[in-house]
Automatic annotation (TrEMBL):
Classification via InterPro entries: DUF6766
Official protein name in the record: Uncharacterized protein
Keywords carried by this UniProt record: Membrane, Transmembrane, Transmembrane helix
Organism, as annotated: Flavisolibacter ginsenosidimutans
Membrane-traversing stretches: 126-144
Keyword Membrane: yes
Pfam families: DUF6766
Stretches the record annotates as Disordered: 86-108
Basic and acidic residues composition-biased segments: 86-103
Amino acid sequence: MKWLRNNSLSLVFLMLFLFSMVGQSITGLKQYNEEMKERGGPQATMGKYFSSGHFIEATFENWESEFLQMALFVVLTMFLYQKGSSESKDPEKKEEVDKEPNPKKKGASWPVKKGGFILAFYKHSLSIALFVLFLLSFFAHFYGSLKNYNQHQLLKGLSAEAAGEYIGNSKFWFESFQNWQSEFLSVFAIVILSIFLRQKGSPQSKPVDAPDYETGE
């Protein structure tokens, strides 16, 4: 079907996401119950596990780093360059994406035709959406991490921490930084490797016969 062909990339990644979430849930529940057994805590069903700090923390600390990476990449590539990389604009010329939108262009979306505030918002809507998703994931990660930490504190017979205290806890920031650094490293790798290496057929690569110094796709 033409529809499947035209949407195959997003559909495959959606299926991979769902497959991974199922795998995370099953293995996470097993790990959680093993921890609870060792510490004398209650065992959880799958439904109960989804509301546990263990599941919320593990899920959103990863989403947080992904959305941060994508948001920063979208914004920084507006004005920063890497000569020769397929992931960068060409510093020597004005790119199509830098041009002001033309409301008379065939197929232009309604915000472009509407203009004004709506167009001003639309021109930055991708980065705004990614930063909003990052912030939502960050606060969900914080909530899950706090909940998980306090559960372990109570099982040890120690007092729970308030949110204002936990925001400075090294455990929470360790969870964030260990994910952030891997995302920034992966972006650095694709930016640099795409200067010298090729993948025929991929839009993330320059043409195989393109010289190393050529920037962009």
